[in-house]
């Protein structure tokens, strides 16, 4: 299982050490109204924003017993911490993916705390909290006295305005592209279905330079 944060430009950051546990908080929203002589009443308003939290660390030295990456992919702990800080300050949503699960959602980094321990020199421990993002759209509705503005909150399925594409590179395969771009290598069939006219009858015959549409 991989834990990945991806920005709107397709740049991915994979956490090198998987957390021991992940907490996902879901709540149902309520508006409370006080009605004279009758007391308070709760009116459900739908699901509140989800919060995803976990803790892990960025190791200074590579150890295959707990590192979830190749040795040459291990990020420098300070650089990795700065990347999370940049995500925290960003005004644009990210996509958080937990491969092998159904978690693939747009989020903001709500908080990020780093810890330096004297007995673990060079390592950086961290806690991170993510909040799912909803796009807010403004819809115009005509009323008796003219136009009225209503807010329509709807969660977008993608962070981009245009459908994402991928240009095939040397050494690529559909399963590799699905793993890198969609977080799940088994989704190669969806990519092939969308691009069958470009690829042809053999899904293994993709060529460098081909521009593929991603689901």
From TrEMBL:
LysM domain residues: 164-214
Protein name: LysM peptidoglycan-binding domain-containing protein
Coiled-coil intervals: none
Biased composition (Basic and acidic residues): 155-164
One Pfam family named in its UniProt record: LysM
CDD domains: LysM
Region spans: Disordered: 144-164
Source species: Paenibacillus zeirhizosphaerae
InterPro entries named among the record's database cross-references: Bact_Kbp (IPR052196), LysM (IPR018392), LysM_dom_sf (IPR036779)
Matches recorded under SUPFAM superfamilies: LysM domain
